[in-house]
Design brief:
8 strands; four-stranded antiparallel sheet; 113 residues; 24% helix; alpha+beta; single chain; 4 helices
């Protein structure tokens, strides 16, 4: 299946060099390391939950395309998480968790735009 990962300018060169998206610890999820993916081929900050007020970079500046069969649909993955970890993500205004996917292992990059 084809998915997309959106990232900022200061991360894109590392992704290009590695040719991989690597799982990263998520503090809000108890430091579970994962890669966030989406099926949305056009970025929407609110829908993707990329509306952080603490980050100064544009996390939709670059689109990374991957193909994987190991992605887990967020609603399925999130069932095992406590509500206090899920709710801040899922109930952010405009969030569309039905378009979120996660992978717990590195994912090979097909294309970076």
């Amino acid at each position: 299946m084809r998915f997309y990962h959106y990232t900022c300018a200061h991360q894109v060169s590392e992704i290009r060099a590695a040719g991989l998206l690597r799982p990263w610890p998520q503090p809000i999820l108890g430091h579970v390391a994962l890669v966030w993916l989406t099926d949305l081929d056009v970025p929407d900050r609110a829908a993707l939950g990329l509306t952080s007020k603490t980050l100064r970079c544009d996390r939709t500046a670059h689109r990374v395309t991957v193909e994987t069969f190991h992605a887990q649909h967020w609603p399925e993955f999130a069932r095992r998480l406590p509500n206090d970890q899920r709710r801040p993500l899922e109930f952010t205004p405009g969030a569309l968790p039905m378009h979120w996917w996660v992978v717990l292992s590195p994912v090979r990059v097909v294309k970076v735009v």
